[in-house]
Amino acid sequence: MIMKATALFVSVMIASFGIAATGVLDSAAESPGKKSASISTKKRGKALSLYLNSIISMRRGDYDRGIELMRDAADIDRKSQQLQLRLLAVYYRDGDYKNAATMALRALEEQPTSVTLHIWLGRIYSQLDRVDDAVEMFRQAISLDPGSTVAYEALAEIEEESNDLVGAVRVYESMLEQTPDS
Length: 182
What we know:
Elements: H1 2-17, H2 41-59, H3 63-76, H4 81-93, H5 97-110, H6 115-127, H7 131-144, H8 149-161, H9 165-178
Helix pairs in contact: 1-2, 2-3, 3-4, 4-5, 5-6, 6-7, 6-8, 7-8, 8-9
């Protein structure tokens, strides 16, 4: 009953005020009257309804159903960066690194210069013991933002875990050159 009420509420909000009124999937919102190649308002409304119902399911303790609904929403609205990141975080928290990597790669398709996504994917690859891929993601994050101490620290950490202490020292030296105030 509540899920149907949520879907009705979302539909009314979208019909009355547009998708931006909900504040959840606004990254993919369109201007009224503007034609675009993105998904239709009806599909976006369905994605939003699924997302909200996923949150309700998780809060009620039906975590698996919540993940399923969130995945369905992400499949409908593949351009919603916010939705992809939320599902990525859920998978990562649950230790489902394969699905977290899939979501990170999907999000990177839409935002290839995101330092945050490169760091996320590096951490995921590290968990999957794909050390070379993790190093590459951290290096890409650093090339995108030479001031990212998070990327340097993640790269140094993986060098240390690989027992490459010389490599770790080089990373820290580079970080200090690029970010002298850190």
